[in-house]
Write a structure and sequence with these properties.
Belongs to the AAA ATPase family. With 267 residues, the chain is an alpha/beta fold. Helix content is 47%, strand content 10%. Bound molecules: adenosine-5'-triphosphate (ATP).
Length: 267
Amino acid sequence: LTPQSTFEIERPTVSFDDVGGMDSIKEEIRMKIIHPLTHPEIYKAYGKSIGGGILMYGPPGCGKTHLARATAGQVNAKFMSVGIHQILDMWIGNSEKQLHALFEQARKNSPCVLFFDEVDALGASRTDMKTSGSRHLINQFLSELDGINASNEGVLILAATNAPWHLDSAFRRPGRFDRVLFVPPPDRPARSGILEIMLAGKPIDKVSYETLAKKAEGFSGADLKAVVDVAIEAKLSEAMKEGIPKPLTTKDLQQAMSKVKPSTSEW
Ligand code: ATP
């Protein structure tokens, strides 16, 4: 039984400009993984080690995946996104091989951002199912991260979780996920920026981003995307009747907002 070991490789067209808010997080990503890639000699001159990844945590829909993809676009790197469940579920008994194949593929395609979603699924499996062989998978993951058998130069490793407390502390040692960043629900200026990004290039008429952002307390980036989708949906039928694109207004978006529930309130 030899599973296919090819994972999808993207060439993202989004960059940091497509991510609203998150200025300090973007800066951390620049310092920790982008600059070491573009200027390794400067880091080496100061004796700064290169390598290691960033673990992002926070409520769903607040842009962790989007930011990882934009990081790749920012440096013209390729992008591979893998859910840990994808590895755990699809190749039972063969997960370690798959994980190795995945890292190998990323190394061959460097520069490449390798993004792991739901990494907490790994930690949970270690404590809950000690005998199931998932411990081997964790050890495999750690040695791939450490680059023991092959260098990870040019492979930028990012991971995301909604439940960082489930992740085994071994993952947070130096050279592994030694930076942990909270990706919060967007604040008011970030919500304004996100809406502006989402409506860029679309027919709009004097949209007040400030008014909308104020009203959108508790809305995640994904919620805001839903708002824009609902507003466009409503506008489309109007436009179809008249045969021309009708611009979206603040009122259209406010109406759409009342139909979408904010998902991050409890965070
Ligand atoms: P999950 O934990 O559910 O995987 P996530 O934090 O990875 O969530 P994303 O999938 O990145 O969230 O976000 C969902 C969508 O919301 C993105 O595809 C993007 O369109 C939009 N979005 C979220 N945050 C932002 C942002 N800061 N700027 C622009 N768009 C955003």
